[in-house]
TrEMBL record:
Keywords: Membrane, Transmembrane, Transmembrane helix. InterPro entries: CbtB_put (IPR012667). It comes from Haloterrigena salina JCM 13891. The keyword Transmembrane helix applies. This is Cobalt transporter subunit CbtB. Pfam families: CbtB. The lineage of its organism: Archaea, Methanobacteriati, Methanobacteriota, Stenosarchaea group, Halobacteria. The chain crosses the membrane at residues 20-41. It comes from the Archaea.
Length: 62
């Protein structure tokens, strides 16, 4: 990355030229799935399931 691309605008322009529409769609879908999980799956059962999954994967939560 050159010095002219060290701004947000420069990085957006670089991404616009280098990413395919499928990569952009995949990224947006992933972001939407994360947002859905964070906003709507805060029920205790879903929260406990995600918590147990993190521990099972070896991720330290607390």
């Amino acid at each position: 990355m050159t010095a002219t691309n060290e701004t947000v605008h420069g990085r957006i322009e670089t991404a616009r030229t280098e990413l395919t529409p499928m990569q952009v769609a995949t990224g947006l879908l992933f972001a939407a799935a994360i947002a859905f999980a964070l906003l709507f799956l805060q029920e205790p059962l879903a929260h406990d399931a995600m918590h147990n999954f993190r521990h099972g994967a070896g991720i330290v939560c607390h």
